[in-house]
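fyi for ur records
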Amino acid sequence: MRKQTKLVAVLSAAALLAIGASMTSFAASGWAQEDGTWVYLDSSGDRVYDTWKKSGSSYFYLNEDGEMATNAIIEDGDNKYYVDASGARVTNQWISMENEDDETVGDNDDISTLWFYFGSSGKAYADAVKTIDGKKYIFDDNGYMLSGWQTYGEDNDLYYLGDENEGWAYTGWQFLELDEDIEDDDYDDEEWFYFKPSNGKAYVNSRKYISGKYYTFDENGVMQDKWVVGTPGAPASEDSARYREENGAQETGWIYAYPIDDPDEEGDDQYWFYLDSKGVPFNLNGADTQILEFKDGTRYDMAETEIAKKDNEKWKDPINNVATKVIKSKTYLFNDKGEMQTGVFIFDYYVSRTGGVVLEPGIYYFNKDSGSGQGAMATGKTTVSYDGDNYNYYFQKDGSAYRNYIADGALYDGLGERVDAEDGNSYDLVDIPEGAVISIKGSSKVVEGPSTVIVNSSGKVKKSGTVKIDGYKYTVNDYVVTDIEAVD
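which gave:
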């Protein structure tokens, strides 16, 4: 931008000659020179005051002393004009002057230079947004060009107008220092902002689609680049979304991040989240949890009974409002904070599954090992390590563990764990609790307890024959001990 600085308030000899040449036709009335100063005389030969007079194509102002003003701001009614060194009123021109009275300009009280722009009629732009040489400028009601961070208009729109010698509205993405009036330790010294290319207004407290991606801006116009709770512009039910660090674009799909309730990322734990097209985590606030009816109106009490019988910290505490989702043919579990869960879970209720049938009450394992399979629901034979010990499970096709079940020749107890002979023993006797049912895989035979079976150190169940254990001979038929005989 080309701006003209304040001119010296003394007429040069050349300027005087130029004015004299244009006014040679003035006689008793009209322009005259008195004591080296130009005046304008009326028909009575008296000076005129506080008025404009035209000569050629230019207007000149006679001040309160009747003398032609030069290098001065002229306040005429509600309007301001400027006359240059020759006294002529300027048009379509920038004029600057020192801020000798320390005027506050808009929201800025630290301005050393005042800038004005005088339009085609010579009037200073005031209380207006104007386009000059393709750039937008804002002028206050005194005609001062605004600069720096400013709010303007009925809606208090936010602008950044450069330094005091720039003044034009920045547009597009800008990495800027914050307004010094903003005191917030959560901000860095510089942050990203976006100003509409059409008018320079900053996006504030809004969620906007820019160049094919969504971004969110807070009440100060700062681009958000982590979790945003109460996302501006999003439906009320979608009260949190994730935006990419540094980049700021809305995330979708899998992300690994700190919890939503840890905005300063001060904790040690991070979690996997699965985000929808609006950046909202699956099952946030239990949104994807369904209230499901129990079979025959009864509730399974596994967590209160069998878990209580086995005090083992590897079991996850029962949690409510969980939901599962099928993602690329694998099932994942999420709590009501949207965090993906891993480990062994026992559900005494039905768990909803988006993209698949519900999970029935039972025991399930969601892979806690790192890698591409982390979090995926397991099927088949699976070994789970906890605190240095290994536990063997056999998960059915629906993900639930075989319980009180002989599968592939091995016995799995009421907690889904394979029962092995204790260390140092080749065989062990295992009592089946009264009322339990063991289904023999591949056979229609169902054996009801109370009963006893024999397992070896690899978990295999003796199907038939005899076994000597601690001075007794046990006879086994169809997996169940049918006779006991003392031996020498």
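The longest helix spans residues 13-22. thats all i got for now
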